[in-house]
Amino acid sequence: MSKLLCYIFCLLCFSSSIASARDFVAGFEDIPLMDGLEQIDSADISFGNEETRFIEAQLQAPDGCTFANVQKFYQETLPQLGWSGEEKNATLSKFRRENDILEIAKIGNSPLKISISLKNRN
Q1: What is the pLDDT, as a whole number, of residue 5?
Q2: At residue 18, what are phi and psi to the nearest 5 degrees?
Q3: In terms of residue numbers, what domain contains 47?
Q4: How many domains does the chain have?
Q5: CB 122 within 8 A of CB 51
Q6: Which strand (E) or helix (H) includes residue 87?
Q7: Nearest CA to 96 among 106, 111, 82?
Q8: With contact defined as beta carbons under 8 Å apart, do 77 and 18 qualify?
Q9: Cβ–Cβ < 8 Å for 50, 21
Q10: Residue 111 has what pLDDT?
């Protein structure tokens, strides 16, 4: 019984610690959607096969949200999901997990638009 309670407690802690994300980016298995960001469905791209794949989604941020806010959210959240930070500058954050590379890039200013892409290293 105590193992079950411990498991439930850990599960609750983990699920609440994924910053304040309520949803995941459509088309991605486990990339949380930061509160306030909206996915631009008409801009989604996805193709690949068993050996390689490429997925891209575009997001729009509300007024007052900066790319630095977005970077901070994903730098705090993605390591909990197994991603490690690889590179960061003013317009790009790059993460790696196993054979996948995840890039979060600033692609527009007014309003702030962000591209999230996932590709294999192969």
Answers
A1: 42
A2: -80, 70
A3: 2-120
A4: 1
A5: yes
A6: strand 84-89
A7: 82
A8: yes
A9: no
A10: 93
